[in-house]
Amino acid sequence: MRIIIIGDGKVGHSLAQSLVDEGHRITIIDRNESVLRRCMDTLDALTVKGSGVSVNTLTEADAAHADIVIAVTISDEINMLACLTAKRLGAAYAIARIRDPEYSKSLPFLMKELLIDNVINPERILAQEISRILRYPFSGSVETFARGRVEMMDFRVTPGDGLHGTTLKTLYHNRPALPRVLFCAVERSHEAIIPKGDFSLADGDHVFVISDVAGITAFFKAIGKNTSDIRRVMIMGGSRTAYYLTQMLLDMHMEVTLIEIDEDKAQDLSEMLPGANVIVGDGTDQELLLSEGLKEMDAFITLSGRDEENIMAGLYAQHAGVRKVIVKNNRANYTELLGTIGLNSVVNTKQVTSNTILRKVRARSAADSSAAVEHMYRLMDGKAEALEFIVREDDGFTGVPLKDLHVREDVLVAVIVRNNQVQIPFGDSALQAGDRVIIIIRGNDVARLSDALETY
């Protein structure tokens, strides 16, 4: 597909890299010549210097023949106008990043009038992800599928779990009372593994499991990872994500203390979030954190604009005994290191935005939109993906037992949702039209279910 990306910041560059890797023809528009030079050195993409709202710039980028235009500059207004201009020139589909809460209530009107087909609000998506993580303090991430009926969670195998040395095929034979979940992916020694029955778990493994909500909750309770309630939360940094997250946590009847160093911003947040305790101060000041009750908090979340400050404050909160620490970090090369020092819950705005837009692009790129991926979640920094599809009437593999299908070696059929009932499939299970099916794949080259499954 021909795709134009307007804005080569962190999100734009990461997105361009992913789309180039998937074989799309990418053109990047940015005002900054040095940024574009970096693109030419590192990406197989065309570059155009100029403003994303300029007719001349968009014409030079051939917006008239673009399948998708994605506007991800730092300005919501530029993103909206760029989409409008590109659509007027003939672009087929437009995606805009719009982050300001003031636009939230008027988005339907703006999308209609400005010809925007899809809006991405990464801060709100990130806040939703953090709120899910808070339900399970021991997990680094929680993702939902099948309209909330299925959850995927990750954890690290520890000696107290009683899982070390156990093969997956003997796990439930040896522990028949253990609630069933599917072990769908494992990261070990930097390698992504789609485990088979003879795979043996080991302490330190980074494991992803999937099941219905009740089953996954019961499983973790059975291995001693209880889902204790979190009631008191401290947030460092008054970012847009912090605003959305505080709203969500207040709706969940949690007590929220929000620390922001800028006095004017803190005053605005205090007025916008009357139920929160907003403090003016430096969130990296250990004395301030202690005086505001850090040691009595159930969770501490760092959402400032500086990764280093987020990491250091998170480490201090961990040292102070806070049960759940969540750190925002936009540097992908830090993620693995943070896990080794105990910061296992790391969230990334850039990654959330890229994943969301990639799913939209894959849906548009499918020859038949009804065959496109419904939901996508990247695991282990993109080494693997969880994909949700809806099985169609004309899919050639319906009614055929999975054991009689050719399933790619790097693919695992993880869950089938039929008539709102969640099933962990076995060899005799067969897909039916209308099923929601979730597969796990090592890599990122599946756009349709037929790319992973076929009859012999």
Compact summary:
By secondary structure, this protein is an alpha/beta fold. The chain has 14 helices and 24 strands.
Structural notes for this entry:
The protein has 456 residues and is α/β, with parallel strands linked by helices. The protein is built from 14 helices and 24 strands. The chain has helices spanning 10-21, 33-42, 55-60, 76-89, 107-113, 122-133, 168-174, 213-222, 240-251, 263-272, 286-291, 307-319, 332-340, 349-365, and strands at residues 2-6, 25-30, 46-49, 68-71, 94-97, 118-120, 142-145, 150-156, 182-188, 191-193, 206-212, 232-236, 255-260, 277-280, 299-302, 324-328, 345-347, 375-379, 384-390, 405-407, 411-418, 421-423, 436-442, 453-455. Helix content is 32%, strand content 26%. The strands form 5 sheets. The chain has a 6-stranded parallel beta sheet with strand order 3-2-1-4-5-6, with helices on both faces. A 6-stranded parallel beta sheet has the order 14-13-12-15-16-17, sandwiched between helices. Strands 7-8-11-9-10 form a 5-stranded antiparallel beta sheet.
Query: What is the overall silhouette?
Result: globular
Provide the structure class: alpha/beta
Specify the biggest β-sheet.
6 strands, parallel
The oligomeric status of these chains comes to single chain
Q: What is the helix content?
A: 25-40%
Q: Total number of helical segments?
A: 14
Indicate the mean pLDDT.
Answer: 89
Strand order of the largest sheet: 3-2-1-4-5-6
Cα end-to-end separation: 30 Å
Q: Roughly what fraction of the amino acids lie in strands?
A: 25-35%
Q: What is the radius of gyration?
A: 23 Å
Low-pLDDT segments: none
- DSSP strand count: 24
